[in-house]
Amino acid sequence: MSAIGSMPNGSAVRSQFIAGLDDQSGDWELVLRESHHRMKNTLTLLGASVRRDFTRAGTSDVSQAVDRFERRIVAFGRLYQLLSDNDDPAPVAVAPFFENLCGAISEAVLEPAGIRCEAAIESGTLPASQCHRLALMLTELVTNAAKHAFPNKKGALIRVDVARRDGAWVCTVADNGIGATGPLQGTGSRILEGLARSIHARLQGEAGQGGTQVSIVMPTTA
């Protein structure tokens, strides 16, 4: 796959659509409540795709629709388990953790919506708490892109990159959709801000005709 950080040349416009961190966003209990709210929204997306399948399915296709529904429910359960808080002090292997996360998101959310997912994950280890919070942020960014970036689903692609660069872990979600036109707002923004603050990370965003990308930059000393 092409470099996750690359954007098309030409009329691509940089956009400072990530708002500055707010001092009040550090309330971890609030972040957790809103994260669970976001997971409920993800389940709503899953339910909508299931309704579409059963509406379109003829009598002979019902069993196939049931099989697809079962696979998505299993994938959603795996996704929820990965996002559940983990107090285990043992370090987590980054590559298998995020590859499993991207697979679960893709099967539960993206594939039913006709969106492809590509991932490039670098090897390494992180504390479980940092992996968990990065996973919540990546899931929020991917879900947000799936909901808003593709009014026309043809050729829709979301790319996830997790790599170490210049003394930091950089986690990037990029899409080839219509491009963000303003700052992230509402519940999603508060989740991202609170989670970023909790791991001493910063958010960087860029948008243009080629799509939108958001990077989470977390120093390795955090």
Automatic annotation (TrEMBL):
It catalyses: ATP + protein L-histidine = ADP + protein N-phospho-L-histidine. It is an enzyme of class 2 (transferase). Keywords: ATP-binding, Kinase, Nucleotide-binding, Phosphoprotein, Transferase. Its EC number is 2.7.13.3. InterPro entries: HATPase_C_sf (IPR036890), HATPase_dom (IPR003594), Sig_transdc_His_kin_sub2_dim/P (IPR011495). Residues 118-189 form the Histidine kinase/HSP90-like ATPase domain. Residues 34-108 form the Signal transduction histidine kinase subgroup 2 dimerisation and phosphoacceptor domain. This is histidine kinase. It comes from Bradyrhizobium stylosanthis. The keyword ATP-binding applies. Signal peptide: none annotated.
